[in-house]
Design brief:
Chain lengths: 837, 224
């Protein structure tokens, strides 16, 4: 016999499934898309950071502490001092060079070690026993398995690296024991010093302390003994410093991905809200028959949870596939350059899987919660009657909570960063978004109330219908307002950034030609002889050389960049894109330096402040004479006069050159002359400012490609939400259409009526969305970007793109309304007036 | 079985109005009464108050000695589930459940499942003349047949009291007659009491007593 009893779950859920199959599917897909994007971004950044961390950990081996300094190295005489300290069991000196591969734009990390010392700290870097003597040869290196695969070489092959502008051929003697997926090569420390002009200098010293020594206490004592510019820390500090370089970027990507999930949750809200309203009398019947309020809420929220579960499972699977595709196509850092040289493997982590699964379910549950509460609270007697639907939306117009939320968002926008992350900025955006969404029904009611009533019958009916049911229209707008505002804010922010970057490039590239030795790595540079030859090339009117160095100011932060530039203080102040008023330093004050905005944010430097920088093992005082905008880096940078740098350090080498040409000279001939006259000149990067500008903007576009994709996802989800809502509303009005057809309205007129409704509703949504988007863009520009990357920028609105997207959304919304109407206006519409439900 | 004393109800809002002030009603077990009155006098409101679906402004409603006006929503809901049955003018049959599943819904809410539920549903469907239609969907039934399903659903769990609000309002005279006869028959067979709200004299004649609701209260018009 057929089963007759049915659970209350089935009575609730079956109704929803039966009447909302397509919309339920859309909700599932929206959640799936949000989870997929979020999980993919998390997988990729976790893989990169994990690989980075493992790499640093692997290379640090069993070291308890590391003494680090400037990237270019520090005096090796510190090493015997450390090695003789009674607390130290083993001291292992290391020279690290990111050597450019000759005639390629790639870098191979060279780790020069003392095999006998390193064996006690980093045994994984020592090749198999029997090869140890070979490791002492200066022309031999051992590759990591990943490096060998990448270079396509085996033992016995030759690898050509670049030092200054000359080629350094080295023989591959074998592979180090596999232990990581990092690309690096190991060689004798003396060989590294000799081949890469690091004689007398080392990059770090790895220390193992004796058993029983308090590591942290010893660290603090040792720090006080070290010369300026050196720091001693646990290896984890360098992991933290490496991670911090990309942290803001990764967090921003995660937030963007979560935005897609948030929009998916809003789609669930609008779908569920409208579905619950449509089933109002059915749910009221269940209340009359004896389903308690609590049980009804539970069932409706469980319905949302079911959508969330299915969507999350699909999303997690999709996210993994997306991450694999992204790594193969745009790379670990989506082209931003943070993770060069890494070849990680995606490995799903149960915690991350669980987190994103829960986020997807939570988004769906939260989206269902308010409609469920409203359905449970509705008086059953009233709800049983037809025409009660609009009363349901009266509860969805919380005015004071909305204002409070907006006010809280405004306050959050003014708060400082937390651990260098703009967490309050993100919170401000979320609060402003939620507060505005809460006000949508009221804004919609007000807009419809003040709109003039058209003469044309279909248009008049459209407006009157919307006026009679502003709540339903408002709910259907929620997803589209969220996605339009986020799309508009991102578009304004990216356009502002791009425009500011373009203007900045114009300012920082005043010369006619730029010559770069160190396009990749830090082993290439220009000797004084190279510089003289370049300056003497026919057609070169003036040459300014720059030395780029990296200094360690804080062991927990990435090194800052020191740019020693040619020219005097006045010319530097003119050339730099200052954001502060230039300061003329008094003759008796410490000499001037110019710091970038990151130095202000990260180190608290201020205009006029006297600071100390570690150069050549000594702290030297300087005066901050200006703050400049620096889009090339998000870590700190300092510009000083090159003459002063040479006087302090004796380092006359250079990494870049800016050339001004004589009026009759042309770039092509000057370039050819440089390549011809300078030994190794073919290994120089020579470019005109226009080329550099074009490459930079391409890199910018590539970096933001993912942002564009995520924006598009948010807009698509929003459009899905709008079409789903329109569909629900239109189908619920079949009896109305049947009546209008009885009264003599043609299908075309009803179609026109729906088109006008679609136009009005999406028009209101666009206005609200764009206004909110503009406000959010201000937070993105002045709070999120500033606190994340320490960049300021000028506001620029891409009016053409915004107008285009507005027209597109309007057109799609209108077409959707008409298409849904066609479905509802089938032959049975006339018969619908007789239907019970 | 049902004792209503001095029941008062008003509606607030831009145009506040007093629905009734001081209604008394006594219903004995198994008694079936009709409540008539002009449109808007508050007949459906009276039913909603007795069913615990609305709150009175004053007075007392006792069902088998239990004072309903002091119960919270959950308690009223549970009481409704166990002791009341409803027949509506608009049928309110769930369109996505079969006829049998619609009839069995009150049993599901009470946790009565399996063969016990099956036999009771079968008996009810037979009682309303729809024994062969159990597997069908509501969309396959006429208005009169849908109302018979609603009657079966209202009585399948042997409630103490059946409340019928204009059950024949949407039916043609022939179907209305059948439904009224079935409603009386099933109320009596299942030993329930019943209140029929109607503005139809014909419908009222099927009851044991006819009461007239006015703004000052309920009064007997005619016994059967």
């Amino acid at each position: 016999m057929q089963r007759v009893t049915t659970s209350v779950w089935q009575a609730v859920f079956a109704g929803s499934l039966a009447q909302n199959k397509a919309r339920s599917l859309l909700s599932v897909l929206a959640i799936a898309l949000g989870v997929a994007l979020g999980y993919a971004v998390q997988l990729i950044s976790a893989a990169a950071v994990n690989e980075l961390g493992q790499g640093v950990q692997f290379l640090s081996g069993a070291a308890d502490l590391q003494v680090r300094g400037p990237r270019g190295g520090f005096d090796e005489t510190i090493y015997p001092v450390l090695a003789r300290m009674p607390e130290i069991a083993i001291a292992s000196p290391v020279v690290e060079v990111d050597a450019r591969i000759a005639d390629r734009n790639d870098v191979l990390k060279i780790i020069g070690i003392d095999a006998f010392r390193a064996a006690g700290v980093q045994p994984g870097l020592i090749a198999a026993p029997g090869d140890r003597l070979e490791l002492l040869r200066s022309d031999v290196l051992y590759l990591s398995p990943a490096a060998a695969r990448w270079l396509g070489v085996d033992a016995g092959a030759s690898v050509s690296l670049q030092n200054a502008l000359r080629v350094v051929p080295l023989r591959v003697a074998g592979l180090v024991p596999a232990g990581a997926e990092q690309r690096f090569a190991v060689m004798d420390i003396a060989g590294a010093q000799t081949n890469f002009d690091r004689s007398g200098r080392i990059t770090r010293v790895d220390l193992r302390v004796r058993p029983g020594v308090d590591v942290d206490g010893f660290r603090d004592r040792l720090q006080s003994l070290l010369p300026a510019g050196l720091a001693v820390q646990r290896p984890q500090a360098s992991i933290a410093a490496s991670e911090s370089l990309s942290r803001s970027y990764r967090v921003n990507m995660n937030v963007l991905a979560l935005v897609a999930l948030f929009t998916g949750g809003l789609l669930v809200f609008s779908t569920q809200a409208l579905a619950v309203v449509r089933r109002r009398s059915q749910l009221a019947l269940l209340r009359v028959l004896g389903v308690t309020r609590r049980r009804l809420v539970f069932l409706l929220v469980a319905e949302g949870a079911a959508i969330g579960v299915v969507g999350s499972v699909l999303g997690l699977a999709g996210g993994f596939v997306l991450a694999e595709i992204a790594i193969r196509t745009v790379g670990l850092d989506f082209g931003a350059g943070y993770f060069r040289g890494l070849a990680p493997v995606l490995s799903p982590n149960p915690v991350a899987l669980g987190l994103f699964f829960c986020l997807g379910v939570a988004a769906a549950v939260l989206g269902s919660f308010v409609p469920a509460l409203e359905a449970a609270r509705a008086a059953p007697a009233r709800a049983l009657k037809a025409g009660d639907q609009e009363r349901a939306f009266a509860r969805l117009q919380p005015f004071w909570p909305a204002l409070l939320t907006l006010a809280a968002g405004g306050i959050a926008a003014l708060l400082p960063p937390v651990a260098s992350l703009p967490l309050f900025g993100y919170l401000a955006i979320a609060l402003l978004l939620i507060g505005t969404l809460m006000l949508i029904p009221r804004i919609t009611s007000l807009s419809l109330a003040i709109a003039p009533i058209p003469r044309d019958a279909p248009a008049r009916l459209a407006l009157l219908q919307l006026r009679g049911a502003p709540g339903q229209a408002g709910v259907s707008l929620v997803a589209i307002v969220a996605s339009v505002s986020l799309m508009a804010s991102m578009a304004i922010m990216v356009a502002s950034f791009r425009t500011s970057l373009d203007a900045w490039l114009e300012r920082v590239l005043p010369a006619d030609v730029y010559v770069r030795a160190n396009a990749a790595g830090d082993s290439a540079y220009l000797t004084t002889a190279d510089q003289a030859l370049i300056a003497a090339v026919p057609g070169v009117r003036r040459a300014e050389f720059v030395r780029e160095q990296q200094l360690l100011l804080d062991a927990y932060r990435p090194r800052i960049v020191l740019l020693a530039r040619g020219g005097d203080a006045a010319s530097l102040a003119r050339q730099l894109p200052l954001v502060s008023a230039p300061l003329t330093v008094a003759a008796d004050a410490p000499p001037p330096v110019w710091v970038n905005e990151a130095m202000v944010d990260l180190y608290g430097f201020a205009l006029g402040q006297v600071i100390e920088l570690p150069l050549a093992g000594r702290l030297t005082a300087f005066t901050v004479a200006g703050v400049w905008r620096d889009y090339a880096r998000s870590q700190g940078a300092v510009v000083m006069e090159r003459s002063r740098y040479i006087a302090l350090t004796g380092d006359r080498t250079a990494t870049n050159a800016a050339l001004w040409l004589a009026p009759a000279a042309d770039l092509a001939s000057v370039s050819q002359a440089i390549v011809r006259d300078v030994p190794g000149g073919s290994r120089l990067d020579i470019a005109a400012p226009g080329e550099i500008r074009e490459l930079s903007l391409k890199a910018f576009d590539r970096t933001f490609a993912v942002t564009y994709a995520l924006e598009l996802a948010a807009v698509v989800i929003g459009l899905f939400g709008l079409s789903s809502s329109f569909g629900a509303l239109v189908l619920s009005r079949r009896r109305e259409f049947g009546l209008l057809r009885h009264l003599g309205m043609t299908r075309r007129q009803i179609g026109a009526m729906l088109a006008v409704e679609g136009l009005i509703v999406s028009g209101i949504g666009l206005v609200i969305g764009f206004c909110l988007g503009w406000v959010i863009s201000l937070i993105l520009i002045h709070v999120v970007n500033r606190q994340s990357f320490h960049w300021t920028m000028e506001l620029f609105a891409p009016w053409a793109a915004l107008a285009g997207s507005a027209v597109l959304v309007l057109a799609l919304s209108t077409l959707t309304a008409v298409a849904m109407g066609r479905q509802a206006m089938g032959a049975r519409a006339i018969l619908a007036v007789k239907e019970d439900w | 079985m049902l004792m209503v004393r001095d029941l008062r109800k008003s509606f607030a809002g831009p145009r506040p109005r007093t629905v009734f002030a001081g209604v008394d009603l006594d219903l004995a077990p198994g008694e079936y009464v009709a409540v008539m009155g002009e449109s808007g006098i508050g007949k459906s409101t009276l039913l909603n108050l007795v069913a615990g679906l609305d709150n009175a402004d004053g007075g007392s409603i006792k069902l088998d000695g239990v004072e309903l006006t002091t119960l919270d929503d959950d308690a009223l809901t549970i009481l409704r589930r166990a002791h009341l049955g409803f027949v509506f003018q608009a049928f309110h049959v769930l369109p996505y459940l079969t006829v049998s599943q619609n009839v069995a819904l009150p049993l599901s809410l009470l946790g009565i499942v399996g063969t016990q539920a099956q036999s009771r549903v079968a008996a009810m469907l037979a009682g309303v003349g729809l024994a062969e239609r159990g597997a069908g969907m509501p969309s396959e039934l006429s208005g009169g047949e849908l109302q018979r399903v609603a009657i079966a659903r209202a009585l399948v769990h042997t409630p103490r009291l059946v409340l019928a609000d204009e059950p024949t309002g949407n039916l043609d005279p022939e179907s209305a007659g059948q439904v009224l006869r079935l409603l009386r028959e099933q109320i009596k067979v299942n030993n329930a009491a019943g209140i029929l709200v109607t503005h139809s004299q014909v419908a009222a004649q099927t009851c044991d007593r006819i009461l007239q609701l006015t703004s000052v209260g309920l009064r007997d018009i005619a016994p059967r």
